[in-house]
Amino acid sequence: MEHLTQWKHADPEQVRLSADILRTLEEAGHTACWVGGCVRDELIGRPVNDMDIATSAHPEEVDALFPRTIPTGIEHGTVTVVMEKIPFEVTTFRTESDYKDFRRPEEVTFVRSLQEDLRRRDFTMNAIARGLDGKYVDPYDGRGDLERGLIRCVGEARERFREDALRMLRGVRFASVFGYELEPKTWEALLELRGNMRHIAAERIRAELEKMLGGPKPAEGLLLLARSGLLAEAKIRLTPQALESARPEQLDVLPPKPAELRWAALLQGIGVSGDEAENLLKSWTFSGGFAKSAAALLRIDARMNAAGFSTEVAAEEKNLRLAFVRCVLDFGRTAAENWRVYHSMMDKADGKSTACFQLTADWMAAIPAESPRELALGGKDIVERLDRKPGPWLGDLIRRLLEATAMGSIANEREALLENLVRIEEVPGAQKEEKSE
Ligand SMILES: Nc1ccn([C@@H]2O[C@H](COP(=O)(O)OP(=O)(O)OP(=O)(O)O)[C@@H](O)[C@H]2O)c(=O)n1
């Protein structure tokens, strides 16, 4: 009897298609089951993502059974089977090594039984398999640990962490995201072997930290990182001292998306400036776009602080509005939007009023043009009207027009802009300072 309806937290299409794969494998005489994260997430009622499959069939046998396959990591035993455009990873029962940083295919050993495969997985909660009949294979009482809220290594923790040091960070990430505890022996092994984290590629560390910071309570994870010193010598280096000064609890106040908010808070907490942030994030293997946008948030924050921005005085002070307008013009609306959320949430964390959230929204909404293209007057018109040769003065003037329209002192209309051209141009040094970083 198949028990597909028991998958309550997975996409029914994925259940149906992955069940088809299991059935095909079994009909060909192999053993096959769902395993890992999908089984775990279903058990604790979290949304199930990838439905990974483990099988006794060798990669070439898997490949032969299905019309559409991709040899994703055939030497590691993984074949991606594509069913109605949805990819599923089908992995031959194997032991360790392919989780390692320096992948050495010759170390992968295919094993005959599911039991042997589960024995080399990281945590008990990740070493549960589930068959088409709805029955579990759970030799390490992963379900019991899920109920107890415990992250426990399968077997000897030191061995598991020696096989792949990233598992230590995975443990911290799971503890943080699920709100679980690390079982004492697992924690001890982590403390003993934390130095091995320095061999792990930044990209893998970054991916774990992203999941942690995207979770419901990242602060707990950061505290665990501080207490363990896990990343003290890692390629993404976060020392206990830096983490302790970072006021991690503030991260929980910020929404998980956009991700820039929490990353900016973390960087600011550990004393990284907006100017340093972009390169640092890139060196941590973040995309250029993300690094830029998180750094922009911090740059805006630094500027607004330097201008003396605080909710109490913001409504009265015109120069604070001008400082904000300049940030919008220099860094764009999205970055300014991120900063608004960031600043008001930080105020909230400090028990202050969040009234500036609305005020800055009003300021933002009143900006009619963010770039020269949106201005109702082109460079050519300006040159003609003033009868001057184009030069750097033109860019300066356009910038001042953008600022004046954003502040509401000139309407973004051709006539109004033309009328004010001479006046704006003649004010010496008007609104010239702090134009860009
Ligand atoms: N370093 C690792 C990585 C993975 N695994 C095993 O491979 C499975 C799938 O790993 P992965 O897809 O990376 O993570 P998930 O556990 O599925 O968790 P999540 O989807 O939350 O990342 C894990 O459940 C675990 O059994 C492991 O033992 N050691």
From TrEMBL:
Residues 35-152 form the Poly A polymerase head domain. The keyword Methyltransferase does not apply. The keyword GTP-binding does not apply. Keywords: Magnesium, Metal-binding, Nucleotide-binding, Nucleotidyltransferase, RNA-binding, Transferase, tRNA processing. SUPFAM superfamilies: Nucleotidyltransferase (SSF81301), Poly A polymerase C-terminal region-like (SSF81891). Pfam families: PolyA_pol (PF01743), PolyA_pol_RNAbd (PF12627), tRNA_NucTran2_2 (PF13735). It comes from the Bacteria. Residues 260-420 form the CCA-adding enzyme C-terminal domain. Residues 179-232 form the tRNA nucleotidyltransferase/poly(A) polymerase RNA and SrmB- binding domain. Its cofactor is Mg(2+). PANTHER family: CCA TRNA NUCLEOTIDYLTRANSFERASE 1, MITOCHONDRIAL. Belongs to the tRNA nucleotidyltransferase/poly(A) polymerase family. This is CCA-adding enzyme. It comes from Saccharibacillus kuerlensis. The gene is cca.
